[in-house]
Design a protein that fits this description.
Length: 144
């Protein structure tokens, strides 16, 4: 009697890289996310945003957003699968940088000498938070 032992060459999917630190991209720019995985072919990929499915399984390992919007910020991950199983990638955090419009208003305050003058800055919608510089009579005020 002869016994033939066939060792399967099938390899479960695995990721070649994992997401790193959060990434920030400018609103309106193109964003391309990649899911670098290996394992026995065919490999299929599915993309998720904030745990909501963006795509069904396809052979496409890239996900492209042509014009990034504020709602596109959040957590992305891909799922890779083959006939041996499926694997969920660690989340990749994406921030969308933008500057909302704001009104430039003149403010006049009258205070007694030695008293504090409090000027109120209107809220500015932006990501990351804006750096604000105050000017008095055209000259930059150095924060104290």
């Amino acid at each position: 009697f002869f016994f033939f032992l066939h060792i399967s060459d099938d390899v479960v999917p695995y990721f070649k890289t994992e997401p790193g630190l959060p990434q920030t991209h400018l609103e309106g720019n193109r964003l391309v996310l990649t899911c670098l995985a290996e394992g026995s072919w065919p490999l299929e990929f599915k993309w998720m945003h904030n745990d909501r499915e963006l795509t069904t399984y396809t052979s496409e390992y890239k996900y492209t957003i042509l014009s990034l919007q504020r709602l596109d910020a959040g957590f992305y991950r891909c799922v890779v699968r083959n006939r041996m199983g499926a694997l969920l990638q660690r989340r990749s955090e994406v921030h969308v940088a933008y500057m909302g419009s704001f009104m430039d208003t003149d403010q006049r305050k009258t205070v007694s000498q030695g008293q504090a003058a409090v000027l109120n800055l209107l809220p500015i919608s932006s990501c990351p938070r804006p750096q604000v510089t105050w000017f008095r009579e055209g000259h930059k005020i150095v924060p104290s």
